[in-house]
C-alpha cells in the first residue's frame, strides 16, 4: 500500500514534517560532535593525521551502515517508534562518551554515537508517506535541512567546551537527544500507511521483498551522486574546523563559526533545492551542483604557490593563494550547491519507489554516509603522504569531476538511444547536410562486423579464425605493454634511494602499492567498456593512455627535488595499465568459439602477463645506459660512484606504446554482436557465482600481481646482502608461462579440481616463505625463500587459467536454471555475455591484490618489524579458498562435480 492510500490530516502532516526536521537537526548535531571534540582529543592523545581522520569518521561509519536496516524497519513498523528508539540509543551512547580514556575507548564510543546518523533514513521514509509526490521534493528538502545540526555543533560546542570542558558538551548533547525523543513520541502519529495497515490487520512485507529494488542499477547511480553531495558535505563538516585552525591560524571558536558558514547554507538551502527540483527538474539542479562544485574545488585545491617569471627586465615574482575571505566565500558557495544536489537526488526516490522509500533511501544514504566516513580518513592520509593541506580539495575535485562527466555521458547516451534512428540518417559532417540523401546514409560511417558466427564450423574455418587470431595477436602486445607500465614501480622504487630520493620504507611501499589500487579500481569500469564503445576504439585509447605515466616517470626521476606527491600521482596513473586487462579479456572473449575460448584467453592473459617479467628484466638493463642519448636527459650519479639513467624506466616504453596503439586502430575490429549497455551487463551483480569467483580469482591473480609488485622490495628489505633485483623478473615469467601453457590441464581435468589443488600448493608455498624468513640469517635461506616464491608464482599462473576456465562452465550450467524456457541459442548467447562481463569484473576485483599485498608487507613491517604477520594472513586466506572451492564446486553435489567428471552432458551453453 502506498502513502497515497490514506489522506493525512493537515495538522498531523505539519507535525510529522517539522518535528522530524527538528529531531534530525538534534541527531545530526550529535552525529558530528567529534568535529569539535576531536580537535581537543587529538591534542590530548597526540594523534596522527590518519588517527584523527579515523576518529571523526567512525560515527559516520555506524550512521551510514545502519541506515539500510533502519530504513527497512521504518517501512515495516513505522517511523514514530523507530525514530524514538534511534534517539534514545544515541543519547545513551553520547553520554557514555564521557567515560572514554584512550584512543581505543574513544573509537568504541564513537561507534555508538554514530547511531544518531541513521535517523536520516528513518525521517526520509516517515516524512515521504505524509505528502503527495508533487510536494515530496519540497517536504524532503525541508527535512534534509536538519543537516544544519552540524552548524549547531560548530557554533555552540566550542564555547561550551572552552567554558565547561569537552565532557559537558557530550552530556548536554545527550540530554537534548533524550528530550527530543520524548517530545517526538508524544506529539507525532503513525504515518498513513502504517495506520491503514493496522486498520486492516495486514502484516508488513518481508525484509527480502524490501530489498528487491536494490537490483536496479539506477539505485546505485543515485548512490554515487549522493556520495559526493552528502558524503563530501559530512566529511568537510568534520574536517573544516581543524583545517581552518592549521591553515589560517584561527582559534577553535573562530574556526567553529567559519565551519558553520559552510554547514548552514549546505543545510538550510536543501529545502530550496527541493523546491527547485519540483519546479525545474532534478537534472538541471544536478548539472548546476556538479558543475559549480568542480570549479570551486579546483580553486580550493590550488596550494599557495610562488611563481618566478623571467621577464624582459628581470625576474617578476608573484604568489597565488586563497586568502581567508575568499576561502569562506568559496566554501559558502560549495555548501549552497551541495545542498541543492542533496535534494535533487532524493526527489526521485519517493516518486519511483513509493513503497520502498526506506530501503532505497537507506542504501543511497548508506553510500553517501560512507563518503563521510571514508573521506576524512582519505584527507588525513593525503596530508601524510603529500604534505599539502589542500590535498583534501584535490580529492573532492576529482570526485565531482568524475560524477559530472559520468552523469553527462549517461544522459547523452540515453538521448542518443532514444533518437537513434534519426541520428543514423544524418551525415557524418554537418557541411554535407544540404546534399545528403538516402543514397549517402551510412556510406562514410565505420561499421562493426555484423555477421559473426564463431560457433559455425564453416564460417570459422573460412573467415572467422583469421579475423579472431589477428585481433588476438594485436591485443597481446597491447596488454603486455599495459602490464609493463602497471608494474614499472616495482623496479623503480628499489632504485630511488640510490639516486638521491630520501623516501621512507613505508613511502616506497606506498609507491609500489598504489598502481595496484588504481588499476584494480579502473578495471571495474574498463570491464564494461568494450561492449559500450567497441573493442577497437577502446583498445586504442587505453593503449595511448599509457603514454602519460611513461613520460611522467621519465621526467620526474631526473630531479631528486621532485616532491613525493608527484610520484604518488604518477603511481596512480600507472593504474591505466592495470585497467587494460579487464577490457582486453572481455573483448577477446567475444571473438572465439567456446572450444577455443579458453586457449585464446590463456594466451592473451598469459603472454600479456609477461609484461611484468619484461619490465623487471628490461628496466634494470635499460637504466644502465644512455639509450636515448641527449634526448633522454643526463644520468644520475650513485653514491658508489656509478651512474644510472633511471628515466629510461619510463621512456623505454614510449615507442612501443605508439606502435601498439597504431596497430590496434588499424588492425583490430568491432563486433556488432558485442554491443551491450552497462544495464545489460549489470545483471552479473545479481549472480552469486560472480562474487564467489571474484574471491577465488583474487586468490590466484591477486596473488600473482601482488607478489610481482612486492617481491623486489620485500627481498631487498629482508635480504639486503643479496641483489635480488636481478632475479625478480623470474617470478612473473614463471607465472605468465604457467598460465599460458597449462590451460589444457583445466580443460582435461576441470577448472574446479585444478583450482582446489592450486590453493593447496599456494598454502604450502607461503608456509615455506614464512619458514625461510624465520631462519633468514642462516646460509642458503635466501634461496629457500626464492624457491618458495617461484612455487607460488607457478601455482598462481595455473590457478589464473583454471579459474577463468570455470566461469563459462559455471554460467553455462546456470543458464539452464535461470532461463528454463529459453532455447539453447538464447541460453548460449546470454551465458557468453555474462561470462565476458564476469571475467572482466573478477579481474577488476582480483587486481586489488597489487595494492593489498605490498601494502600488507609495509604495514606489517611498520607495526611488527617483520612481514610475517602479513604472510600468515595470506596463509589463512588460501585455506579459506580451498574450503570454498570444495564446498561450492568440486565436492559431490557441487555445481561442477558431475560436469568435470563427465557424468552429465556439458553445460547448456555448449549445446
What does it look like?
The two termini are 45 Å apart. The chain is globular, with a radius of gyration of 29 Å. The strands form 2 sheets. The protein has a two-stranded antiparallel ribbon with strand order 1-2. With 911 residues, it is an all-alpha fold. 74% of the residues lie in helices and 2% in strands. α8 (149-164) crosses α9 (166-187) and α33 (688-718) runs antiparallel to α37 (781-818).
Salient structural properties:
membrane; 911 residues; single chain; 74% helix; disordered C terminus; nitrate assimilation; globular; two-stranded antiparallel sheet; mainly alpha; cell membrane; MFS_dom
- Counting DSSP H or I runs of 4 or more residues, the number of helices is 41
Strand order of the largest sheet: 1-2
Radius of gyration, in Å, reads 29 Å
Main beta sheet strand tally, sense and closure: 2 strands, antiparallel
Shape: globular
What oligomeric assembly is this protein in? single chain
- Model regions low in confidence, pLDDT < 50 over at least 5 residues: 1-6, 903-911
Distance between the termini: 45 Å
Estimate the mean pLDDT confidence: 79
- How large a portion of the residues is in β-strands, by DSSP E? under 5%
Tell me the number of strands: 4
Look at the helices and sheets and give the structural class. mainly alpha
What fraction, in percent, of the residue positions are helical? over 70%
GO molecular function, one term: nitrite transmembrane transporter activity
Subcellular location: Cell inner membrane
Domain Major facilitator superfamily (MFS) profile: 16-418
Keywords: Cell inner membrane, Cell membrane, Membrane, Nitrate assimilation, Transmembrane, Transmembrane helix, Transport
Amino acid at each position: 500500500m502506498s502513502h497515497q492510500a490514506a489522506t493525512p490530516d493537515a495538522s498531523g502532516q505539519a507535525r510529522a514534517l517539522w518535528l522530524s526536521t527538528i529531531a534530525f537537526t538534534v541527531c545530526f548535531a550529535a552525529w558530528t560532535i567529534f568535529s569539535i571534540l576531536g580537535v581537543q582529543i587529538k591534542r590530548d592523545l597526540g594523534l596522527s593525521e590518519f588517527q584523527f581522520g579515523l576518529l571523526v569518521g567512525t560515527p559516520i561509519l555506524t550512521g551510514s551502515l545502519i541506515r539500510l536496516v533502519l530504513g527497512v524497519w521504518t517501512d515495516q513498523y513505522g517511523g514514530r517508534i523507530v525514530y524514538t528508539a534511534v534517539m534514545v540509543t544515541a543519547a545513551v551512547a553520547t553520554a557514555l562518551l564521557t567515560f572514554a580514556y584512550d584512543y581505543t575507548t574513544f573509537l568504541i564510543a564513537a561507534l555508538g554515537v554514530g547511531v544518531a546518523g541513521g535517523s536520516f533514513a528513518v525521517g526520509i521514509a516517515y516524512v515521504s508517506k505524509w505528502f503527495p509526490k508533487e510536494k515530496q521534493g519540497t517536504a524532503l528538502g525541508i527535512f534534509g535541512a536538519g543537516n544544519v545540526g552540524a552548524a549547531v555543533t560548530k557554533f555552540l560546542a566550542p564555547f561550551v567546551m572552552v567554558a565547561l570542558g569537552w565532557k559537558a558538551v557530550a552530556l548536554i548533547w545527550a540530554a537534548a537527544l533524550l528530550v527530543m525523543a520524548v517530545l517526538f513520541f508524544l506529539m507525532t502519529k503513525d504515518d498513513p500507511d502504517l495506520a491503514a495497515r493496522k486498520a486492516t490487520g495486514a502484516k508488513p512485507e518481508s525484509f527480502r521483498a524490501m530489498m528487491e529494488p536494490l537490483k536496479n542499477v539506477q539505485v546505485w547511480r543515485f548512490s554515487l551522486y549522493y556520495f559526493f553531495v552528502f558524503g563530501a558535505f559530512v566529511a568537510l563538516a568534520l574536517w573544516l574546523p581543524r583545517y581552518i585552525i592549521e591553515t589560517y591560524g584561527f582559534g577553535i571558536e573562530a574556526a567553529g563559526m567559519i565551519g558553520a558558514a559552510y554547514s548552514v547554507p549546505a543545510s538550510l538551502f536543501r529545502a530550496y533545492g527541493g523546491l527547485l527540483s519540483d519546479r525545474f527538474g532534478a537534472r538541471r539542479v544536478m548539472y548546476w551542483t556538479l558543475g559549480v562544485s568542480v570549479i570551486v574545488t579546483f580553486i580550493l585545491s590550488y596550494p599557495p604557490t610562488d611563481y618566478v617569471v623571467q621577464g624582459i627586465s628581470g625576474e617578476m615574482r608573484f604568489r597565488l593563494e586563497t586568502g581567508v575571505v575568499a576561502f569562506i566565500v568559496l566554501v559558502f558557495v560549495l555548501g549552497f550547491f551541495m545542498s541543492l544536489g542533496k535534494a535533487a537526488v532524493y526527489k526521485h526516490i519517493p516518486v519511483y519507489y513509493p513503497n520502498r522509500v526506506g530501503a532505497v533511501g537507506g542504501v543511497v544514504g548508506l553510500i553517501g554516509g560512507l563518503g563521510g566516513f571514508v573521506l576524512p580518513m582519505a584527507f588525513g592520509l593525503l596530508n601524510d603522504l603529500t604534505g599539502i593541506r589542500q590535498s583534501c580539495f584535490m580529492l573532492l575535485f576529482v570526485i565531482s569531476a568524475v560524477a559530472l562527466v559520468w552523469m553527462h555521458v549517461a544522459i547523452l547516451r540515453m538521448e542518443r538511444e532514444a533518437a537513434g534512428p534519426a541520428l543514423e540518417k544524418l551525415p557524418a559532417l554537418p557541411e554535407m547536410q544540404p546534399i545528403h540523401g538516402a543514397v549517402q546514409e551510412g556510406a562514410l560511417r565505420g561499421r562493426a562486423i555484423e555477421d559473426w558466427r564463431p560457433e559455425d564450423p564453416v564460417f570459422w574455418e573460412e573467415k572467422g579464425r583469421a579475423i579472431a587470431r589477428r585481433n588476438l595477436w594485436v591485443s597481446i602486445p597491447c596488454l603486455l605493454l599495459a602490464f609493463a607500465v602497471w608494474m614499472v614501480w616495482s623496479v623503480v622504487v628499489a632504485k630511488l634511494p640510490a639516486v638521491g630520493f630520501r623516501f621512507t620504507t613505508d613511502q616506497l611501499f606506498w609507491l609500489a602499492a598504489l598502481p595496484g589500487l588504481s588499476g584494480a579500481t579502473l578495471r571495474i569500469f574498463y570491464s564494461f567498456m568494450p561492449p559500450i564503445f567497441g573493442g577497437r576504439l577502446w583498445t586504442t585509447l587505453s593503449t595511448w593512455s599509457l603514454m602519460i605515466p611513461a613520460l611522467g616517470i621519465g621526467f620526474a626521476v631526473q630531479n631528486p627535488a621532485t616532491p613525493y606527491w608527484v610520484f604518488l600521482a604518477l603511481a596512480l596513473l600507472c593504474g591505466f595499465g592495470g585497467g587494460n586487462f579487464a577490457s582486453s579479456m572481455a573483448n577477446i572473449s567475444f571473438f572465439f568459439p567456446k572450444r577455443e575460448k579458453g586457449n585464446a584467453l590463456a594466451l592473451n592473459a598469459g603472454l600479456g602477463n609477461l609484461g611484468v617479467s619484461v619490465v623487471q628484466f628490461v628496466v634494470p638493463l635499460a637504466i644502465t645506459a644512455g639509450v636515448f642519448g641527449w634526448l633522454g636527459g643526463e644520468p644520475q650519479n650513485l653514491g658508489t660512484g656509478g651512474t644510472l639513467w633511471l628515466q629510461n624506466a619510463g621512456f623505454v616504453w614510449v615507442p612501443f606504446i605508439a606502435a601498439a596503439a597504431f596497430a590496434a586502430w588499424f588492425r583490430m575490429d568491432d563486433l556488432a554482436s558485442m554491443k551491450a549497455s552497462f544495464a545489460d551487463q549489470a545483471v552479473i551483480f545479481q549472480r552469486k557465482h560472480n562474487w564467489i569467483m571474484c574471491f577465488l580469482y583474487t586468490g590466484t591473480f591477486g596473488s600473482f600481481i601482488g607478489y610481482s609488485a612486492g617481491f623486489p622490495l620485500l627481498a631487498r628489505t629482508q635480504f639486503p646482502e643479496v641483489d635480488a633485483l636481478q632475479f625478480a623478473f623470474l617470478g612473473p615469467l614463471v607465472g605468465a608461462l604457467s598460465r599460458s601453457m597449462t590451460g589444457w590441464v583445466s580443460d582435461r581435468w576441470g577448472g574446479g579440481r585444478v583450482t582446489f589443488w592450486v590453493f593447496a600448493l599456494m598454502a604450502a608455498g607461503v608456509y615455506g616463505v614464512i619458514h625461510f624468513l624465520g631462519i633468514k640469517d642462516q646460509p642458503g635461506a635466501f634461496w629457500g625463500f626464492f624457491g618458495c616464491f617461484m612455487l607460488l608464482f607457478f601455482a598462481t599462473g595455473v590457478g589464473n587459467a583454471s579459474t577463468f576456465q570455470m566461469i563459462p562452465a559455471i554460467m553455462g550450467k546456470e543458464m539452464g536454471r535461470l532461463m528454463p524456457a529459453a532455447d539453447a541459442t538464447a541460453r548460449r548467447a546470454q551465458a557468453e555475455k555474462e561470462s565476458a562481463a564476469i571475467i572482466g569484473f573478477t579481474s577488476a576485483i582480483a587486481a586489488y591484490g597489487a595494492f593489498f599485498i605490498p601494502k600488507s608487507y609495509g604495514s606489517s613491517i611498520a607495526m611488527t618489524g617483520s612481514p610475517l604477520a602479513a604472510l600468515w594472513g595470506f596463509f589463512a586466506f588460501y585455506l579459506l579458498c580451498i574450503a570454498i572451492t570444495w564446498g561450492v564446486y568440486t565436492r559431490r553435489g557441487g555445481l561442477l562435480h558431475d560436469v568435470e567428471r563427465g557424468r552429465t552432458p556439458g553445460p547448456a551453453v555448449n549445446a
